């Protein structure tokens, strides 16, 4: 009889239903922790949650490995960009402050809280952050107070602490700069020039600005929204540091920019029928990007033919049962994309 020896085919979609509405989410990077993600609740009150979940590949179900309290919703979650698994198993969250956590099952522990408003009761909430891939002891945060802060982390192995050896993480402000005229909504390190020193930010003033940590006395405006609409997100191409993507508030399109040709979009991706909420470049290819939005769609685009117009995506996922507010393309598992809508997380095979 034919077909008896066929191995079970891996599903194309896995779904996890969280106890609360989801907003932030990201893939773990460590090679020994496949199909592990962290997800953050969006509850409009002080008490929120973060959960670490992992796919059991035998039962094809996601399992919650660790759940911990978080003040206010997380605006972003990232795992340490440690593809070799040599650093402690850390994740970071932004909200009222930047927090670094040590992942554990079942207990995830707060390692440090980073606050650069030491002399004030007032805290300026953080809108986003980025963890430098080349130099994992650098994290950049963006805030509603118009500034970006670059933090230096120390992850020392402490021997002889009560309870045996453990990691202890501390951080200090390397630099804080006024990045925009209004709130800063996102920050991302560039891979250009060694990947340590260049970063870009976007904000409520409608501009994309580029900075170099070696020359902070000036910045470069790469793009300004013609209608001066706030720019909410930016993402660098993960293979070609010349390109980045950004989205403006309530816009149904994604703007692709080439830093060598400032102020003129090299492409516009405009098939969404409602506002775009998320952008994620492919980790392994310079010409693929995924966009997702309020029209319940996740679209994958091939931008090879730029600067010729890109009319249509090459792949459309339209089965999401809600407005997609988050999308992440896993660095160590490039054939999987994760999306969030309502209380659901889905990972999609691409």
Automatic annotation (TrEMBL):
Subcellular location: Cytoplasm; Nucleus
Repeat positions for WD: 269-311
Keyword Glycoprotein in record: no
Main location: cytoplasm
Superkingdom, natural source: Eukaryota
One Pfam family it belongs to: WD40
GO CC term (a single one): cytoplasm
Keywords: Cytoplasm, Developmental protein, Nucleus, Repeat, Ubl conjugation pathway, WD repeat
SUPFAM superfamilies tied to this protein: WD40 repeat-like (SSF50978)
Nucleus keyword on record: yes
Pathway the protein acts in: Protein modification; protein ubiquitination
Family: Belongs to the WD repeat DCAF7 family.
Name the record gives this protein: DDB1- and CUL4-associated factor 7
Gene name, Swiss-Prot/TrEMBL: EOG090X060Z
């Amino acid at each position: 009889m034919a077909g008896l020896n066929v191995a079970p085919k891996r599903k194309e979609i896995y779904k996890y239903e969280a106890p609360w509405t989801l907003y932030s989410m990201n893939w773990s990077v460590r090679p020994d922790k496949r199909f592990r993600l962290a997800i953050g609740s969006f509850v409009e009150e002080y008490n929120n949650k973060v959960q670490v979940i992992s796919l059991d590949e035998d039962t094809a179900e996601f399992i919650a490995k660790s759940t911990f309290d978080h003040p206010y919703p997380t605006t972003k979650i990232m795992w340490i960009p440690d593809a070799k698994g040599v650093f402690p198993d850390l994740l970071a969250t932004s909200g009222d402050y930047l927090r670094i956590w040590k992942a554990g099952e079942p207990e995830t522990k707060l390692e440090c809280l980073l606050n650069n408003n030491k002399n004030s009761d007032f805290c300026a909430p953080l809108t986003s952050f980025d963890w430098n891939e080349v130099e994992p002891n650098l994290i950049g945060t963006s805030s509603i107070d118009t500034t970006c802060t670059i933090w230096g982390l120390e992850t020392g192995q402490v021997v002889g602490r009560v309870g045996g050896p453990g990691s202890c993480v501390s951080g200090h402000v390397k630099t804080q700069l006024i990045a925009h005229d209004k709130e800063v909504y996102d920050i991302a390190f560039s891979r250009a020039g060694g990947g340590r020193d260049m970063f870009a930010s976007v904000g409520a003033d409608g501009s994309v600005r580029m900075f170099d940590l070696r020359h902070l006395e000036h910045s470069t405006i790469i793009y300004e929204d013609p209608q001066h609409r706030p720019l909410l997100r930016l993402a660098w191409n993960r293979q070609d540091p010349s390109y980045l993507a950004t989205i403006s508030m309530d816009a149904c399109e994604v703007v692709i920019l080439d830093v060598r040709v400032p102020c003129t979009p090299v492409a516009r991706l405009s098939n969404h029928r409602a506002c775009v909420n998320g952008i994620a470049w492919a980790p392994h290819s310079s010409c693929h990007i995924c966009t997702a939005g309020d029209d319940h769609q996740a679209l994958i685009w091939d931008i090879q033919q730029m600067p010729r117009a890109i009319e249509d995506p090459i792949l459309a996922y339209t089965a999401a049962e809600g407005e997609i507010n988050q999308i992440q393309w896993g660095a160590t598992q490039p054939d999987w994309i994760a999306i969030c809508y309502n209380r659901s997380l889905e990972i999609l095979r691409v």
